[in-house]
Design a protein that fits this description.
Oligomer: single chain
Number of helices: 0
Shape: elongated
Structural class: mainly beta
Order of helices and strands: EEEEEEEEEEEEEEEEEE
Radius of gyration: 18 Å
Largest sheet: 5 strands, antiparallel
Helix content: under 10%
Length: 268
């Protein structure tokens, strides 16, 4: 699934941290996802037949975010029967028809990072409440789509990415970066048009059109860059001299360890 970039309530894998420089803001607006490789979009709370935070389904069922249209966009919730036997966290899983939410994972888990055959990995959903989400095992709660999609993902640094093959390091609504599905396919190179967070190749991010020379709307892929090296490597960006390494975060707002993260853009 693709993830549109939005604000702190944007989706999977999805929205950007609060407070990035306007010159480096991604081009996308929302989070959505069908496999862990779908788009992300932001928006208001979405009503459904159950609440993914309260898990208020009948016994033997779980509440999951759901792609009601089969288009790769999570837009609803529903109660689904828990499989028997059910997959545990980290187990391989299958989503029926490749549709997010219809899977064979246990309660509290969602089959995520789906491939073209609907095969993925059982991934924990966040616990707690939208205002105070929690994840076990050092994972980060990434909340998007108005709180509809809340997954526990691995944190990462785009300057020294450690994400598994098939995943990329993208901004999280939690304020840092997380590993999520790479759906760039044959595209996603520098300068390629884009609209969603996870449609650019590793080391790049979908940025608003004015940040990339010759780019139209809504945006194009551009590189992450290291602010610590910007002075000694003024031409580190592919779009130099028009582009330069700009801070991804506003001054004083970068999470620990991410102070040097920049994005190649054009200062406005």
């Amino acid at each position: 699934m693709k993830f549109e970039q939005g604000g702190t309530d944007s989706e999977a894998g999805g929205g950007p941290p609060a407070g990035p420089e306007t010159t480096t803001t991604a081009a996308t607006t929302d989070d959505t996802q069908t496999s862990s490789s779908a788009p992300t979009t932001s928006g208001g709370p979405i009503a459904g037949e159950c609440d993914v935070w309260m898990q208020d389904c009948p016994a033997g069922a779980k509440c999951v975010p759901f792609d009601s249209t089969g288009t790769g966009v999570v837009d609803d919730t529903r109660c689904v029967e828990i499989a028997d036997p059910a997959g545990k966290a980290g187990d391989p899983c299958q989503a029926e028809g490749g549709i997010v939410g219809l899977d064979d994972c246990d309660a509290g888990l969602l089959c995520w990072l789906l491939d073209a055959d609907g095969l993925g990995t059982c991934t924990p959903m966040c616990e707690g409440a939208p205002a105070a989400p929690t994840c076990a095992g050092g994972l980060v709660c990434d909340v998007s789509t108005g709180g509809l999609l809340a997954l526990c993902l691995t944190s990462c640094n785009p300057l020294t990415p450690t994400c598994p093959s098939g995943q990329i390091c993208i901004p999280s609504a939690a304020g840092g970066f997380v590993c999520d599905g790479d759906v760039s396919g044959d595209a996603g190179f520098y300068g390629d048009p884009c609209e969603f967070l996870n449609v650019c190749d590793p080391g790049l991010l979908c940025s608003a059109g004015p940040n990339v020379p010759g780019c139209g709307t809504p945006g194009c892929c551009t590189e992450f860059c290291d602010l610590a090296l910007a002075e000694s490597m003024p031409a580190m960006c592919s779009g130099a001299p028009e582009q330069e390494c700009l801070p991804f975060y506003d001054a004083g707002m970068a999470p620990p360890g991410l102070e040097d993260v920049g994005l190649c853009g054009i200062k406005q």
